[in-house]
Every structure is written in C-alpha cells, then in structure tokens.
Design goal:
By secondary structure, the chain is of the alpha/beta class. It is built from 15 helices and 20 strands. Strand 3 and strand 4 form a beta hairpin. Helix 6 crosses helix 7. The structure holds NADP nicotinamide-adenine-dinucleotide phosphate (NAP).
C-alpha cells in the first residue's frame, strides 16, 4: 500500500499460504504473542488504538494485518495459494520472468518479502522418525491433537517454547522441556489496556504516537547496547539475574536456567511466566542432552528415558534460507544461492549486484536483538520507492547496485558485526556453525532508516531506456 500511495499501483502479491499474515498466519501455537509492544509493532500509517494488550496475541495481530490489507485494497492484488518457484531476470526485456504454481508472470521489479523465520527447522535427532505419537513444530501446530492428560516433550527453550509451555502446562499431565542451552529472560510487564486507555488513544492519537516513540527510543538504546555500546548491557544483565533469583527458589533449577553467555547473545526473551511454569509439579526441565528418541519417549545421554505421548519441536527456523526454496537467477545466469555462497549478503539488506530491479524486504542483516520488523520493512519500502522514483526521473528501466559499493558495505558490516554481542560466543539463529552472520544489523535502527531513506549518490547503476535501445 505504500507503493500504491507513492504512485505505483500496479502491484501483484504472490503468497504461497492461503491467507496473508506470514508468521502470524502460520504460528498458531498456544500462547503465541508478540514480544514487541503493539504500538511499535504496527504500521506507522495504520495505528490501532484498540489493541487489547500492550503485547498483542497472535490472533489479534493476524486480524489487524488482514483488516489493514482489506482496507487498502491489498487483498485485491494478492494471489494467495500461489508459490513462486523460479524468478529469472530477462536482460533483453529488462524484466523478471516468474514461474508460479499457477502459471508464468512478468514484472518490472521484483520485491521479495519471504521473511527470515518461515521455514521450520527439523532437528537431526536420532530416532525422531521412530516416535509412535504425534510430532509437530511450533510453527505447524497440530490443533487436532488434544494435549489434555498427555505427557508432552518440548524440545528447545527459545522464544516459541517460553510462550507455549506456560500455555499448555495447565492442560498436560506432564511436560518435559529439553534444554540445550538457556537464554536470558527479562520481565515482559504485559498488561491489558483498559477501555479508558483505548478511548484515550482513539481521541488523542498523539498519545499513542508518543508511546510508540518512547518504545522505539528504548529499543534503539537496546540496539546500541548490543552493538557499539556494550557497556549499556549491564542493567539488562542485572534485570535478567534478578528475574531468575526472584522467581526460582530451587537452587539447582536456578543454576540450570542461568546462562553462562552474555545477555543479548541469544535473543532476550520477554516473559513473566517461564520460570514460574518450570516450578510447576508437572513440568521438568531436562538439561541433559538428548541421545535418542524412542517409539515411546526420549532417552537422555545419562540413560534416563522419559515417556512421552506427543513431541513438540520448538527448535526454530532455517533463518539463513531467505528466499528459498524459490530459485532466483540473475543477469549473468548465476543463482542467488551461488552469489550468496558462503553467506547471504545484500547492500543495506536490500540489493544484490547481478540482480537488477530486485529488492529484498527484511533481507540479509536486517534483523536485530530489539526493534520491530515492521519498522525495518517500512524503511526498506521507502528505499524501493526512492529507487522507483529515480528510475522514473531518469527515464530508465534497469537499476542495479554496483558491486564495488555492495562489497564496501559488506566489509563495513562485517567489521561492525565482529564487535556485537551476537558474536560473543553462544549459539543463536543469527550466526551459523561457520561463524557466518546473515541476520543481524549491527547498528541502531534509526541508522537503518537514515541510510535507506534515499539512494546513496553513485551507489546504483541505472540504464536509461533510450540509451539501452541505442546500444
Ligand atoms: P530459536 O530461538 O532458534 O530456539 C530454538 C531452540 O531449540 C533453542 O533453544 C535451541 O537450542 C533448541 N534446539 C534447536 N535444535 C535442537 C536440537 N537438535 N536439540 C535440542 N535443542 C535444539 O527458535 P524460536 O524459539 O522458534 O524463536 C526463533 C525466533 O522467532 C525468535 O528469536 C524471535 O525472533 C522469533 N519469535 C518471536 C516471537 C515473538 O514474540 N514475537 C515468538 C516466537 C519466536 P540452542 O539455543 O542451544 O541452539
């Protein structure tokens, strides 16, 4: 809709799912909610004064996304249930040729908005396929499986697990949570908005904007703390320790949940329920590594076998897959996967040399330890609009980031990343086993918006239509 507003109404959206919403359509696990305050996790041009809580639950975010899409005519432009399998740059026509599950399509500009957390990661655990009961990932929750009175094994203790375990604990007979390495948490301080508060936001939108600005400022300080100003982590670390000490009486459990790595290295998890849930009589935190899944349960490396009826994989996502499994072929016949070997990279996370007229929204290195993805995407779209305007202004039909500029940006990025908390020595989904980071933005969020707002002079090569024809 930002594109339409900017004067580019001829937009077609391909969505392989049956509905729009992305992660919010897919992640329907019990307890799913946002860990970014809703006044920041909403479109800047569509403030919603009626969020039920400070941190909206999944169903409400999904409703919001679809309502905004309906209101702005996005649904009319969307082809749901349509997967783009291949995109090929046609140099002759200066257009992208798309192959989709429902036919071919031609486009002047290709925007990818495939997310970073869309492909569930299936862990390689011995014997998993031999398990007799249901096994499902948090992002593919099987709502037909009734957990009442069941023994449930949950593998993983990341953001998804800490939300779903407290939600299913009252139902299940027993929950065994398999932890590989603990992450730091901080109080979420979630609360429901009263009707009075909602009316206030409705009548005085400036109040909501003020809250959004304050939340953004806090998040940007968090971004600084994880990147260039690591000394700012001290109060976060203290809050994390205080939460453990306050919530957990059992000293063994306290030791088991206390991370040895720096706060922020793994994503900080906001929760008020996780530790109290671990102390419930029907919950056991198992921190011995899994040796084998058997048909009837899970055996740990110390030889203990715990029976289970259901296994929930809260094991995260293939976060470095980006546009996969779509095959993208650039100007010289190379694929994006080849260009990205060994690590995905893009100028400002948006453009890749050799792939003209293509922009990646929430592309490589545009994730953070704080902040709102919506903000990042809006900043990316502003960059795309600046590029489209420049194409119009110069009567051109081809725009490509210069390789030397993309390489220089990549060097600057890698240097900055090396000093961030995400590379301080822990396992996280940002850095792969070879130390490659295709995920994180190593500066403040305000810097992302500033750098993407306009086209940096000389960064892109544009080819004019007339020039092209004369050549
Ligand atoms: P995650 O943070 O990648 O956590 C995966 C968990 O599974 C980790 O505890 C990991 O252990 C464990 N694990 C992976 N493979 C394993 C194996 N083979 N054996 C045992 N344990 C294994 O995934 P996530 O919890 O789904 O969260 C991913 C991201 O999604 C979050 O960081 C966040 O950005 C986003 N998210 C956001 C919200 C929200 O509120 N907005 C909610 C959920 C998720 P190690 O740590 O030792 O690797």
């Amino acid at each position: 809709m930002l594109l339409v507003r900017a004067g580019y109404p001829d937009v077609t959206i391909f969505e392989r799912g049956e509905r729009l919403g992305g992660v919010w359509a897919h992640n329907t696990y019990p307890g799913a909610a946002c860990d970014v305050p809703s006044h920041l996790y909403e479109f800047s041009f569509e403030p919603n004064p009626r969020w039920s809580r400070r941190y909206a639950p999944q169903t409400e975010i999904q409703q919001y996304v679809e309502a905004v899409a309906r209101r702005h005519g996005v649904l009319d432009r969307a082809r749901t249930g349509t997967e783009v399998t291949r995109a090929h740059w046609d140099e002759q026509r200066a257009k992208w040729q798309l192959q989709t599950s429902s036919g071919s399509f031609e486009a002047d500009i290709l925007l990818t908005a495939c997310g970073q957390l869309s492909i569930p990661k299936a862990p390689t655990i011995n014997g998993l396929e031999s398990f007799a009961g249901p096994v499902f990932h948090t992002a593919e929750w099987d709502h037909d499986v009734d957990l009442a009175g069941k023994r449930v094994a949950v593998i993983g203790t990341g953001c998804s697990a800490i939300q779903t375990v407290p939600a299913i604990q009252p139902l299940a007979e027993q929950i065994d949570v398999y932890q590989r390495s603990p992450g730091w948490t901080m109080p979420k301080m979630d609360f429901a908005y009263s009707d009075r508060a909602k009316r206030l936001f409705e009548r005085f939108p400036a109040v909501q904007r003020l809250d959004r600005m304050a939340t953004f400022a806090f998040m940007d300080i968090g971004a600084a703390a994880m990147t260039g100003q690591r000394w700012l982590l001290a109060p976060f670390r203290a809050a994390g320790r205080r939460q453990i000490n306050k919530a957990i009486n059992d000293s063994d459990l306290r030791a088991t949940v206390t991370p040895t790595d720096e706060i922020g290295c793994k994503r900080i998890m906001l929760t008020d329920e996780w530790y109290p849930t671990l102390e419930k009589p029907n919950v056991e935190l198992v921190d011995t590594r899994i040796q084998q899944v058997t048909p009837a349960g899970i055996r740990s490396e110390d030889g203990t076998e715990r029976p289970a009826d259901v296994i929930v994989l809260a094991t995260g996502f293939e976060s470095h897959a980006f546009v996969a499994p779509m095959e993208v072929i650039g100007a010289d016949g190379q694929t994006l996967a080849e260009e990205w070997d060994p690590v995905a990279r893009a100028y400002l996370g948006l453009s890749v040399p050799g792939f003209p007229n293509m922009f990646l929204l929430y592309g490589p290195n545009t994730n953070g330890g704080t902040g709102s993805v919506i903000y990042v995407i809006e900043a990316g779209v502003a960059h795309v609009i600046a590029a489209l305007d420049e194409l119009e202004r110069r009567n051109a039909d081809r725009i490509e980031i210069r390789r030397e500029r993309a390489d220089a940006f990549n060097r600057e990025l890698r240097t900055a990343l090396a000093g961030t908390v995400w590379h301080a020595g822990c396992t996280n989904w940002y850095v792969d086993e070879n130390g490659n980071d295709a995920s994180q933005w190593p500066w403040m969020w305000s810097a992302y918006r500033r750098r993407t707002r306009q086209l940096e002079p000389g960064a892109y090569e544009l080819k004019a239509r007339m020039l092209e024809r004369a050549e």
